[in-house]
């Protein structure tokens, strides 16, 4: 079985007294590649996911998370902490149709700068749009079980580290 190592980010910002999280709406074709056996897509019109992508050779996972966030959302963020890993198997919907064992390391990131959805034309092949959504309720809006768990861990981190928003 083919193995893939990816990394992504839970990017948070505080607006007034409320937290927001940056998410992407993948293009339909790109989204099909992420269907997994541990957390199938929920039935919803708009599929929302966290920004993530493959770790490039010589790149550390946390560097990948920051790069993918920038590429897929237009945002620059600061690393706060590693949240955890998700592991799942999916079948490639393109090319060889192989089964792939995938590990995605997720990091908690704090928004630093940039405009949400300010992505290159080339990235539009993967990302339909990027948007901020309220952290409260984000678990219900995300499509994948592993990503829902990463948002829960981010919420737990905020509860345990009340100075995280400073």
Fill in the keyword field for this structure.
single chain; 166 residues; Nucleoside Triphosphate Pyrophosphohydrolase; six-stranded mixed β-sheet; alpha+beta
Detail the topology: elements first, then pairings:
Layout: E1 2-15, E2 18-26, H1 28-32, E3 52-54, H2 61-73, E4 76-91, E5 99-113, E6 127-134, H3 138-141, H4 145-160
Parallel strand pairs: 1-5
Antiparallel strand pairs: 1-2, 1-3, 2-6, 4-5
Structure write-up:
The protein is an alpha+beta fold and 166 residues long. The chain has one domain (2-160): Nucleoside Triphosphate Pyrophosphohydrolase (Alpha-Beta Complex), CATH 3.90.79. The chain is 23% helix and 39% strand. The chain has four helices and six strands, in the order E-E-H-E-H-E-E-E-H-H. It has helices at residues 28-32, 61-73, 138-141, 145-160, and strands at 2-15, 18-26, 52-54, 76-91, 99-113, 127-134. Strands 1, 2, 3, 4, 5 and 6 form a six-stranded mixed β-sheet that branches. The longest helix is centred in the C-terminal third of the chain and has 16 residues, at 145-160. The chain is globular, with a radius of gyration of 15 Å. The chain starts with a strand and ends in a 6-residue tail after the last helix.
């Amino acid at each position: 079985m083919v193995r893939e190592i990816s990394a992504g980010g839970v990017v948070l910002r505080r607006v007034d007294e409320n937290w927001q999280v940056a998410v992407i709406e993948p293009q339909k074709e790109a989204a099909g590649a992420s269907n997994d056996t541990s957390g199938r897509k929920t039935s919803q019109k708009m599929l929302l996911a966290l920004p993530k992508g493959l770790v490039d050779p010589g790149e550390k996972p946390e560097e990948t998370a920051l790069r993918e966030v920038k590429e897929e959302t237009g945002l620059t963020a600061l690393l706060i902490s590693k949240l955890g890993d998700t592991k799942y198997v999916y079948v490639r919907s393109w090319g060889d149709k192989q089964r792939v064992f995938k590990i995605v390391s997720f990091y908690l990131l704090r928004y630093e700068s940039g405009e949400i959805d300010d992505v290159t034309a080339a990235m539009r092949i993967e990302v339909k749009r990027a948007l901020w959504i309220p952290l409260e309720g984000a678990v219900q809006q995300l499509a994948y079980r592993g990503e829902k768990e990463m948002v829960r861990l981010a919420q737990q981190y905020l509860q345990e580290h009340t100075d995280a928003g400073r």
